[in-house]
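User: I'm new to structure prediction. If I give you an amino acid sequence, what do you actually give back? Let's try with this one:
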Amino acid sequence: MSGPLGTAPRLPSPLLEAVDERFARHGVRLLLKRDDLIHPDLVGNKWRKLTPNLAAAAGRTLVTFGGAYSNHLRATAAAGRLLGLPTLGVVRGQELAGRPLNPSLARCAADGMRLHFVDRSTYRRKTEPETLAEILRATGTEDAYVVPEGGSNALAVRGCRTLGEELRGHGVDVAALACGTGGTLAGLAAGLAPDQRALGIPVLKGGFLGAETESLQSAAFGGRRGTWSLDDRFTFGGYARTTPGLDAFAEDFGQRHGLPVERLYVAKMLYGLVALTEEDAFPRGTTVAAVITGAPFPAAGAAPQAASR
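Assistant: Good question. You get back a string of structure tokens that encode the predicted 3D arrangement of the chain. For your 309 residues, that looks like this:
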């Protein structure tokens, strides 16, 4: 049965076993939590984070933020198209006059999102009240509903708690996922059972994610919840960066398990899990669930025609 977003979400998302000798020889069982199969337009954790915010927007223009290849901007634009909700994406970096939009931003524009480019200095200050007010005035969206970069706020964190709840009762010891802003990790950890733990693999450099995740849990639940930790050794140079080695790993993993591996988040998490397993970081007998939070762009189905500006 379909709802206001056209296609009913597939919840709980599938939890599938992946037989892989790199884990098996260390006595570790690997499961794949296929959040990438929840919805064709709001893929993975975007469904869990965006839907409560879309309800809160209550028909107002939804303003949010992201880089030129932001998964979050694409998901927000798609949701706006499906719901008939106006959306504005504040994009980090200057627009090049006369140049076509890149495929990611072209998808946003084709889905009806209005794009507003700001320089990197302004973007860094976007959470400051004065800067945010200036952006909203400049775009005529003073009454908008604002969602932060990556979609992580208290509502999103509470929405992601169901991810942890879905992993209860399946023999999972460790639930692992790639982290950008910490919102999905914050919710996942809160939803797990007391004998389970969450492992976050940051995709950005900087070492700030621990404090961000704690802050998000405090906003959502009044304090730290669940058992969680971070391993920041697998950023591969930082956000939106990959290497030939990571690309080869992702291609191989995809062929082994019939999984389209998204490079900027999912590949780094899976690579990290293989490395940790080879380091014997998981005791023999451990069951690890790898949360597949996204799909490669373009997602399944034909992309809208690229728009240029």
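You can read the tokens as a compact description of the fold. Here is one thing that stands out. Confidence is low (pLDDT under 50) at residues 299-309.
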